[in-house]
Specification:
It holds the Pfam family Tektin. By secondary structure, the chain is an all-alpha fold. The chain is built from 5 helices and no strands. The mean pLDDT is 87.
């Protein structure tokens, strides 16, 4: 026969059971209240973090767009400066080549002037004179040498300026490449979103890479590049203008000196031709005078021979009359006449001989 078994252990009263049920209900209600509070706070936190994440992402997207605009503006500025540098390098190179050609062109006039001075050293005697031509030729040589020196200085300065322009161009080109790379990277970053396939967690993404510069340093570098480019462009422009002025001025000075030298040469040639014509005229007159003198000498010699014959006749007559005898040997008019004739002939002969000596 079955017997009633009793579960061992403590038995609770009904009030205790009701009290326990109330405690369980109160605890459940408290837990639900706490859970509700947590859920509400979680919803608020989720909304807050979503909004913050959204605004942070939007702000950073805006910052990226602004940054791309700034970088692109500087890149365009660099493009303009590089184009200006290319144009200035081409212009300065052209002017430098003009100066080199002008310098080369001075060699021929210098050689001509030196050759003229050398030729004029072949003059002889009284014609070796320091005239206006020699003065102008020396001035021309000195001017050409000074002109070549000035042009050489301009060529050297242009070469140095071209080196500076090339260096500046290289520096700006490097900066432009860096900005183009940075701009492309920022464009990639700007295009990223939560649906992009190539996003992932990175190791220590907030680290600061070595070589990172501050925004002030970045701005200062941009300003320095811009100011250097502007300074080199200005210096090159001034040098080009000064070189062109030097070329024009030296050409003008040389032309003025060339005209002065040619004028002195023409004047000297006219003087020489005039002197030459005068000498030819004097030579012709002298030759004519010599011919006449030779004729007169011949006449003098002929007259002298005639006078000698006349003197012989007079001497012979006087000598013959000395042979008269006695009283017939008298000093008569014939004797006096013959004596006077001898004296006169001797005087004439002496005069003719003296004049003949002068003529010869």
């Amino acid at each position: 026969m079955a017997t009633l078994s009793t579960k061992p252990g403590q038995r609770f009263s009904l009030p205790e059971w009701h009290n326990n049920s109330q405690l369980i209900s109160a605890d459940a209600e408290h837990q639900r209240s706490a859970s509700h509070q947590v859920r509400q706070e979680a919803r608020a936190l989720r909304n807050e973090t979503n909004n913050k994440a959204k605004w942070d992402e939007q702000n950073n997207r805006t910052r990226l767009a602004d940054r791309m605009t700034i970088v692109n503006r500087w890149k365009e500025n660099l493009d303009k400066r590089l184009a200006d540098l290319d144009a200035e390098i081409a212009a300065l190179t052209k002017v430098k080549e003009m100066a080199e050609r002008a310098l080369q062109a001075k060699n021929l006039p210098l050689d001509v002037a030196i050759e003229c001075l050398t030729f004029r050293e072949s003059r002889r005697a009284i014609d070796v004179v320091r005239d206006a031509v020699e003065v102008e030729l020396h001035k021309e040589v000195k001017m050409i040498e000074q002109t070549k020196k000035e042009l050489q200085q301009r060529v050297s300065a242009a070469f140095e300026q071209l080196c500076l322009l090339q260096e500046t161009h290289q520096q700006l080109s490097c900066d432009r490449r860096c900005k183009a790379e940075a701009l492309e990277l920022d464009r990639v970053c700007h295009s990223l979103n939560v649906n992009s396939p190539n996003i992932s967690f990175k190791v220590n993404p907030t680290r600061i890479p070595n070589g990172t510069t501050t925004l002030d340093q970045w701005d200062q570098n941009n300003r320095c590049n811009k100011e250097r480019a502007e300074a080199e462009l200005k210096a090159s422009t001034l040098l080009r203008e000064a070189t062109l002025v030097t070329i024009a001025q030296t050409n003008k000075d040389m032309e003025v000196q060339r005209v002065a030298t040619e004028f002195a040469l023409r004047k000297r040639i006219r003087d020489m031709e005039k002197a030459h014509d005068e000498l030819k005229w004097q030579e012709q007159n002298t030759l004519e005078e010599i011919a006449e003198m030779e004729e007169d000498i011949q006449r003098l010699e002929k007259d002298l021979r005639r006078k000698m014959q006349d003197l012989k006749v007079a001497h012979t007559r006087l000598e013959t009359r000395t042979y008269r005898s006695t009283v017939e040997l008298c000093r008569d008019e014939v004797q006096d006449g013959l004596t006077d004739e001898v004296h006169q002939l001797e005087g004439s002969i002496r005069a003719l001989q003296q004049k003949l000596a002068e003529a010869q």
